[in-house]
Design brief:
- This protein has 180 residues and is mainly β.
- The chain has a single domain, classed as Beta Barrel (Lipocalin), CATH 2.40.128.
- It has a ten-stranded antiparallel beta barrel.
- 26% of the residues are buried.
- Pfam families: THAP4_heme-bd.
Length: 180
């Protein structure tokens, strides 16, 4: 699927250009440490840029009822995805595109701020927690991993988390379609 690039797209953003735009879809989340059973949710994710060398990011989720209608708001994430310049003088890997190092900064209204680091390699992104800062009233979130991928033109993602002293486990995943 071709993604049109704006003329002001910085070279560092080109490997992530497949993310640009608005995505909508549904997924499932739940973690026993928080007393949660699996909950279906709807989600809107937007990736954009203003000509500088980072992506802006917003994700909003709502619980879905049995009929698929939105009910209660669940979460909002806002932040920035900062790809690092690729060393074009380094030899290209024989097994695919050059990896792009990423720094992702996210803020949650629940009192959690996190920095994730990882790599993008073609249409797959793998991230893991580098730093978590929490307010005194935030839930005990200490670490997470995220995977994003472009599959059959859809954005698929999954996250594993460590909560309330429990070991890392699957927490949420979704499949989103581009809506541009």
């Amino acid at each position: 699927m071709a993604v049109p690039l704006r003329t002001d797209t910085p070279l560092t953003l080109v490997p992530l250009s497949w993310l640009l735009g608005r995505w909508e879809g549904a997924g499932v989340l739940g973690h026993p440490a928080r007393g949660e059973t699996d909950t279906r949710f709807g989600q809107v994710v937007e990736f954009g840029h203003d000509g500088r060398d980072f992506l802006s990011y917003t994700s909003t989720t709502w619980a879905l009822d049995e009929a698929g209608n939105t009910t209660d708001p669940l979460d909002v994430e806002t932040g920035f995805w900062r790809p690092q310049p690729v060393d074009l003088d380094a030899p290209a890997p024989a097994d695919g595109p050059r990896p792009v190092e990423l720094e992702v900064l996210l803020t949650h209204p629940t009192g959690v701020v996190e920095i994730l680091v990882g790599t993008a390699r073609g249409p797959r992104i793998d991230l893991s927690t580098d730093v978590v800062a929490r307010t005194t009233t935030a839930h005990e979130y200490t670490a997470g991993t995220r995977m994003y991928g472009l599959v059959e033109g859809d954005l698929l993602w999954a996250t594993d988390v460590t909560l309330a002293g429990h070991p890392m486990r699957s927490y949420a995943s979704a499949r989103l379609k581009r809506v541009d």
